[in-house]
Design a protein that fits this description.
Blueprint lengths: L1 H37 L6 H10 L5 E5 L4 E4 L10 E9 L9 E11 L2 E5 L3 H23 L1
Antiparallel strand pairs: 1-2, 2-3, 3-4, 4-5
């Protein structure tokens, strides 16, 4: 009787494992092929394109996929001409992941003709990261369909 129960449990476990292959095993291969196409630059193509589009209102000083860095030039808001901002985005992974990029923001204020570094709100870099990631997801969804 115990052998029959063991045989039944093995049979059920085998059917459950086989069902995993039916309901999604093949998608992993397709996803890997899609992801592989996006890393031809050495960085994730969706993140790269999304970063360029998100920061398009700023002058791009350096965009080097081999170094995995996009660096903007100084940008001054006409409403606050005594302040300027510079953004650097580093690509930490070839995957489209939330921790795949790191945004750094530098802000300077004009104090008597000299530009002096001033603190940046922590939420500024996070807001830029979220905008880049949202745009990257939109680009990926539009490409996969």
């Amino acid at each position: 009787m115990i052998r029959l129960v063991r045989f039944g449990m093995v049979a059920v476990a085998s059917m459950m494992l086989a069902a995993c292959g039916i309901f999604g095993g093949g998608d992993e291969v397709d996803a890997q092929k899609i992801e592989a196409r996006t890393t031809a630059l050495g960085v994730n193509g969706y993140l790269w394109q999304a970063t360029l589009e998100t920061l398009s209102f700023m002058p791009i000083e350096k965009a080097d996929p081999a170094a995995a860095v996009i660096l903007t030039g100084w940008q001054t808001d006409p409403a606050t001409p005594s302040e300027r901002v510079k953004v650097m985005v580093r690509f930490l992974s070839e995957d489209l992941r939330s921790d795949g990029i790191k945004v750094s923001v530098v802000r300077e204020a004009d104090q008597g003709g000299n530009w002096v570094a001033v603190p940046v709100q922590a939420s500024t870099a996070l807001t830029i990261e979220e905008s880049i990631l949202a745009k990257a997801r939109t680009l990926k969804v539009g490409t996969v369909r």
